[in-house]
Amino acid sequence: MEKVNLKEFIKRAGDKPAVTTLYVNDCVRVKAIALKEGTELPEHKTAVRTFLTVIHGKIQFILSDEIIELNEGDWFDIPVQRRHSVKALADAVFTLTQNLKDHG
Questions:
Q1: Could you tell me if residue 1 is inside a domain?
Q2: What are the φ and ψ backbone dihedral angles of 101, each rounded to 5 degrees?
Q3: Could you tell me the CA-to-CA distances from 100 to 43, 58, 68 in Å, in that order?
Q4: Taking 90 as the threshold, does the pLDDT of residue 2 lie above it?
Q5: pTM score, two decimals?
């Protein structure tokens, strides 16, 4: 058993996102991502149902037709198979919880 302080994870980020897997089994995967202010997670899409939780900071979740601002404590259901990117408006740490049994 390991204690992890997610707010401290921002120290691992530089000019690129810091990404680590916190937990995985055959049903669920949980990742932590840290972004320094002004950095971006490039455009991509997810094939599985994914929930984003902002642990620290402020981000923009960018879809082709919409920008959603998410703050510390916010939770968001990422649309499956929709291209998106994430930009840090302030130093930010968020988790992604992915349902590996549900493919959309």
A1: no
A2: -90, -15
A3: 21, 27, 25
A4: no
A5: 0.92
